């Protein structure tokens, strides 16, 4: 029996039309440094998005699902690209300007981008790459920057404002299939080539509704959101789309991501919400001790990307800003969980513990934990397994180019289609996720999992230990066993037996490492995380002086 | 270019599974009169919904898209039917217990309901109809009531609790097509047979997300919602589904809809939200003057069904309850608009004016106004036209039985698929709807529309006028012209010339009625609305003593 409801697709053009009419007076404010903030209403962005679509079609010949890349900061022009490109049926490809040059080249060529819209301030990054970009026919430059860097470039060069000037301010947006590609974002895995995630109109629309639900970010048109998380990073956590659904104002920092201008824009524009990774906030807190600013407008701060240290959360609480943890990844659009404590915990001692978790799954995200043998584990808050998720805004494959079938590597997607997140943790009976390890850092010992992070935290609580990293090493009997690598504090003298006994008070006996070594420093990645790959390699190649207890 | 997102359907079983696990401790509290409230957790409702589905399949042989009717008050068992029936793939058909017997019979037969789940207290209503119900094979009785009324009934009779007892508490819910029928609700038009609206899993899922968005009802698991609006009335405005998405507790009044028990349950259960039509609230306010109760928990009251009189809204404001207008209809699932004032109006003189409108359209509901000639009218807050809407939870046809194509009557659906609501009003530039008339009550005079309600309100402000109804009557020159029918106050002596001059100060000259008559009372419908059909008929048959000025 078929329903009698209208068959109306969930399209990004609908979000744009809604936001630019019903919330036409809401604003996107872009920070421009000394020349004062640039203010653009949602109505103007609606007009200019239509103009951009006309320009792309009429002047640049964009058709069908052509990929149009953006190499841009967070700003109004980038918001226009967000709406114009998918709404006309093309695919928005956001480029991560922090990637190494060779990866950027690989990604642009892999996606076969025909057009790149670039901020003038990023031309020093783009210009040297142009000779390597095989499919790019047009460069559109937005905002200040030295155009002479493009002299002699082989793609045609256009000025954003000149291109859209005089074009009609309405566009007859096509009625697309909601499952059609809308946006493309590459995730740089630690191994192999970057993998493309292709969001659909449907996935972005549903994700936007979720962001606006009371138990997610819960913003209204009374709010202004400071969007620090880059637009090239999982659609800025869905904020540009979600805000157009409900009229939330956006404050965009453009390239002014340093603590001082961030503090200045908070004081002068008074956002009520902000979204960013923890490192940004650590810098901001430090800045505020040097140069106090009134940041009291910021009632809510969404933190994701990595866990917020409890000390940072407490520091924010003291400033009257409430940190709300969220967990997600490029493959989850990204909203996977949001850590709003359940009603029963509010005002109790448990409230803070809930806030330190990764958060609770919404109805749109199904979750399960799988153990070392692939078995399903209970949601008991204790059984640790790899998190797998399923839902209408979760990736089920990776893009592999226009002529190939999507990739479904077995370590990323289960046979029944769930995404294997690579994160290991527990889920409480009321659905709160606590992550402890990356799956690749877990030690699989005799059919049980040992959390490397638990061992590290326990070790680092010893007064003689400066840093400690625990990695899995092969073991004939158990498959894998933990290797403890320890950095001792200057002048400290603790021996391995002492440390092992200390650890024995905190974790189960079978988890205690037999293999120990002292190192001078834990190797780190470019973003400061422990680089366990290096340690595993050093062990395998016999470079570590390991003692077996 | 296809997206790489998972193809996961939007299903009611997902809402159930989510609510009964992650929000498992949230509760449905059903009022039972003197025996104390019945409390059931979402987890228990999850278990019992699975049991009900097993019983329907194994014991009653329900398969495919069989229609299962409910003739029930708002209570926990009814919530279980809401989830079990669509989740297993069958179709929930909610029966309006206020309909005349012959309409109920027609509807049950038209839907070919195989099973009816009925509250024991409603057996006096159902039993006499049974001989006329051609397809009904099973009656399942829930809750207290005299079973002997079913003695000798030809369908098999079951006890709800006995039927589900011992059945498994999990069910392998099928992965349905999200466009499949989930629920069926008939709307009783003023003319012709009742029309069925068939909601899909998709439409209900999306509508539930909308209900939970910040600018709709905006509830969280800290809230308890008193669901007075019947579950047989457009899915209780979507609340049972929406609450399972976010863990909002529900307080269900069952058959205790009188002002005194409502006041008592508010005082003792302390709901934070309530949803009902205005008449319920008028009764409650009166009750509170007789028997004061602490109703201070009720921060938010959603009112729909018909407009809330300003006096009632003010009275609620004084009690600390904030009334929020919403507009919708059976064909719109029903959430069409919600009257949350825009941020810029909050705290200003305009705030109250915004709250008196029908409200603002969400992104999921596209709206347009069509004028007398079918032309599109601007959103200027002044041009009045018939409201047409479009969206994924808006009906595009009516159910016409298992073997017929859906009905798309031209007066209800436009050629391009929009729903013609039959409501006439204006839309402001920021998307707020103000309804003035039903389309059939508007006077189409020489290509312009005259609002009968405006003329009536103006007339009724004259001190000599007790009531006034204005209807369209045929006119050779203008097509239609207004006929003013006036009920004078006792001892009043105003003549038509005086009234016409009085009206002339308030409305445009071309809108002034030429035809006038005095009547003893305005004919009313069973729910107390002006019955203009009767007046038009009396005029057509020459029964009114009309004077032409």
From TrEMBL, chains A, B:
Alphabetical list of CDD domains matching this protein = ttLC_FACS_AlkK_like
The record's InterPro entries line, in alphabetical order, gives:
AMP-bd_C (IPR025110), AMP-bd_C_sf (IPR045851), AMP-binding_CS (IPR020845), AMP-dep_synth/lig_dom (IPR000873), ANL_N_sf (IPR042099), ATP-dep_AMP-bd_enzyme (IPR050237)
Domain (AMP-dependent synthetase/ligase) ranges: 35-399
Asked whether the UniProt record includes Mitochondrion among its keywords, one would answer no
Tell me one Pfam family matched here.
Answer: AMP-binding_C
Tell me which residues make up the AMP-binding enzyme C-terminal domain: 455-529
Question: Gene3D superfamilies per the record?
Answer: 3.30.300.30, N-terminal domain of ligase-like
Alphabetic keyword roster = Ligase
- MF annotations from Gene Ontology: ligase activity, forming carbon-sulfur bonds
NCBIfam families of this UniProt entry?
PRK06187.1 (NF004837)
Protein family per UniProt? Belongs to the ATP-dependent AMP-binding enzyme family.
Write the protein's name: Fatty acid--CoA ligase
Organismal lineage: Bacteria, Bacillati, Actinomycetota, Actinomycetes, Kitasatosporales
């Amino acid at each position: 029996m078929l329903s009698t409801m209208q068959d109306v697709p969930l399209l990004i053009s609908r979000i744009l039309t809604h936001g630019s009419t019903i919330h036409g007076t809401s604003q996107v404010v872009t920070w421009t440094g000394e020349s004062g903030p640039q203010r653009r209403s949602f109505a103007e962005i609606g007009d200019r998005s239509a103009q951009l679509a006309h320009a792309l079609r009429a002047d640049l010949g964009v058709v069908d699902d052509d990929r149009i890349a953006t190499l841009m900061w967070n700003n109004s022009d980038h918001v226009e690209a967000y709406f114009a490109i998918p709404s006309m049926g093309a695919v928005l490809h956001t480029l991560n300007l922090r990637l190494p040059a060779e990866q950027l080249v690989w990604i642009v060529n892999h996606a076969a981008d025909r057009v790149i819209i670039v901020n003038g301030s990023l031309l020093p990054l783009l210009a040297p790459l142009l000779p390597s970009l095989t499919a790019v026919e047009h460069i559109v430059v937005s905002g200040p920057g030295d155009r002479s860097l493009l002299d002699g470039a082989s793609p045609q060069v256009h000025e954003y404002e000149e291109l859209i000037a005089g074009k009609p301010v309405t566009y007859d947006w096509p009625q697309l299939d909601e499952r059609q590609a809308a946006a493309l974002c590459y995730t740089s895995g630690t191994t192999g080539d970057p993998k493309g995630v292709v969001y659909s109109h449907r996935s972005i629309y549903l994700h936007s509704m979720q962001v606006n639900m009371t138990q997610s970010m819960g913003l209204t048109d009374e709010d202004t959101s400071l969007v620090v998380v880059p637009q090239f990073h999982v659609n800025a956590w869905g904020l540009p789309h979600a805000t157009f659904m409900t009229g939330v104002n956006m404050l965009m920092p453009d390239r002014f991501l340093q603590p001082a201008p961030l503090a200045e824009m908070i004081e002068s524009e008074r956002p009520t919400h902000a979204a960013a990774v923890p490192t940004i906030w650590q810098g901001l807190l430090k800045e505020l001790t040097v140069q106090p600013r009134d940041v009291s407008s910021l009632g809510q701060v969404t933190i994701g990307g990595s866990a917020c240290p409890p000390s940072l959360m407490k520091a924010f609480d003291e400033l009257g800003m409430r940190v709300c943890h969220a967990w997600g990844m490029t493959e989850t659009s990204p909203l996977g969980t949001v850590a709003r404590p359940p009603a029963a915990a509010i005002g109790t001692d448990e409230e803070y513990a809930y806030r330190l978790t990764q958060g609770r799954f919404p109805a749109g995200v199904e979750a399960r934990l799988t153990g070392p043998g692939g078995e399903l584990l209970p949601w008991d808050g204790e059984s640790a397994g790899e998190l797998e998720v399923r839902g209408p805004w979760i990736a089920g494959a990776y893009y592999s180019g226009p002529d190939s079938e999507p990739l479904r590597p077995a370590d990323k997607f289960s046979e029944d289609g769930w995404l294997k997140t690579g994160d290991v943790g527990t889920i409480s009976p009321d659905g709160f996720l606590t992550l402890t390890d990356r799956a690749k850092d877990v030690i699989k010992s005799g059919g049980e999992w040992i959390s490397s992070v638990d061992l590290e935290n326990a070790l680092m609580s010893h007064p003689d230990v400066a840093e400690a990293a625990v990695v899995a090493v092969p073991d004939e009997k158990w498959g894998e066993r933990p290797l403890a690598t320890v950095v001792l504090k200057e002048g400290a003298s603790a021996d391995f037996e002492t440390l092992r006994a200390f650890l024995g008070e905190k974790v189960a006996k079978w988890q205690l490492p037999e293999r120990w070594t002292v190192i001078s420093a834990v190797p780190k990645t470019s973003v400061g995380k422990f680089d366990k790959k290096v340690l595993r390699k050093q062990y395998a190649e016999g470079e570590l002086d390991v003692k077996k207890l």
